[in-house]
What we know:
Layout: E1 46-50, H1 54-71, E2 75-79, H2 83-86, H3 102-109, E3 115-119, E4 131-135, E5 144-148, E6 161-164, H4 168-180, E7 185-188, H5 194-202, E8 208-212, H6 213-218, E9 227-229, E10 243-248, H7 252-258, H8 264-279, E11 288-297, E12 300-311, E13 318-326, H9 331-347
Parallel strand pairs: 1-2, 1-3, 6-7, 6-8
Antiparallel strand pairs: 3-10, 4-10, 5-8, 5-9, 11-12, 12-13
Helix pairs in contact: 8-9
Amino acid sequence: MSEPREPQGRTGGESPSAHRPDGPSTAGLPTPDVPRRGAEPEQGALRLGTRRSKLAMAQSALVADAVSKVTGRPVELVEITTYGDVSREDLAQIGGTGVFVAALREALLRGEVDFAVHSLKDLPTEQPDGLVLAAVPVREDARDVLVARDGLTFPQLPRGARVGTGSPRRMAQLNAYARGHGTTIETVAIRGNVDTRIGYVHGGELDAVVLAAAGLSRLGRLEEVTDFLSVDTVLPAPGQGALAIECTADNADLVAALGELDDPFTRVAVTAERSLLAALEAGCSAPVGAFADLLADGQIVKEMRLRGVVGTTDGSTLVQLSTTGPVPETHDQAMALGRELAAEMLAKGAAGLMGERAH
C-alpha cells in the first residue's frame, strides 16, 4: 500500500460520521474546476474496471468523472462479474474476504483495465504484488442505517422484530444494543442488492433491514432511511464509506494522476482500521467493527481516536475498546495504531469471539 501524504491544515468540522448529503454523493471527488494534469485526449480512454451492481456502477461513474477531469482523458466503464456477485452462498462460507475484488484485480494484472474502483471494506488487508492503492478519496458517511416499515427507528421496533442483514458484525452489535435496552430482535441473514434487501421490508417479510449509509447516498436514496445508527451504537466495518482506487504499480503516470484524488486523513483513518482487522487475523466477513475519527481543538485537528469491537452474533458478549493519539503522519504510524488496539482486544478475549480466524 502506498504511504499517505502528510495531513496538513484540515479543520475538524468534517466528521465522516456526521456527513449527511441529501442526494447522490460526490464526497472526495474533484469539482469541475480542478486543474487537469495535462494528459492529452489522443492517448485514448482510460478503462475503469467495476462490478456490475447499481451501487458499484454509481460510485464508479463518480470516480470516472473525477479522473477524467484530473487527466483530461475520457474514462470508460468496463463491467466485470465477480464471484461474490454470482454466488448466493453466505459470504462467510465462500471466503468473505476478496470475493468481490479478485476478478477486478485479475483484470488489472492482465492489462484488461487500467484501474479499478472497490468499496474499501471489501478489500483484503494484504496488498497484492504488482498493484497499488493509488487513491482513497474523502470518506462518505460511515454509519449504518435502518430502513424499517412504517418509518420506525431502531428503538421503536417491536420486541422480536425481524431485522435483515448479511453482516455478523451488525448482528452482534444490533443484538447487543437491543439486549442493553431490555428488548430482543431476530436478526435474519440476507444477501442481495439494495433493491432486494429493501424489498424484503416493503413485501412484509422483514420489519427492517440494515444497510450502509454511503451506499444509499451514492444511489440518491437516503430518503428511504428511517434511522441513522450512531457509531456510538454500531461501529461500521473497517473502511466502510470509503472507496479504493487501485491500479498497477508500474504505471507511474496513472498512479500520480489518481493520487490527486487521495485524501490523507481518510487514508490514515482506514489504514488504522484495516490494520486492526489484519492484526486480529480476521476477514471482512468477521464480526469486527472499527472506526477512526478525528478529534479537533477548535479548528485544528489534533488527535485521532480508533475504536474497535468484536462480538458474538447473538450480542451476548462484546469486546469493545478505543485508543486516542496524535493523527498518524505516515502509513507505518497508522498501522501501529491499529496493531496496538488489536493487541489490547486480543488480551481481553477477542479471539474467542470471532470463530475461525482468517490466515
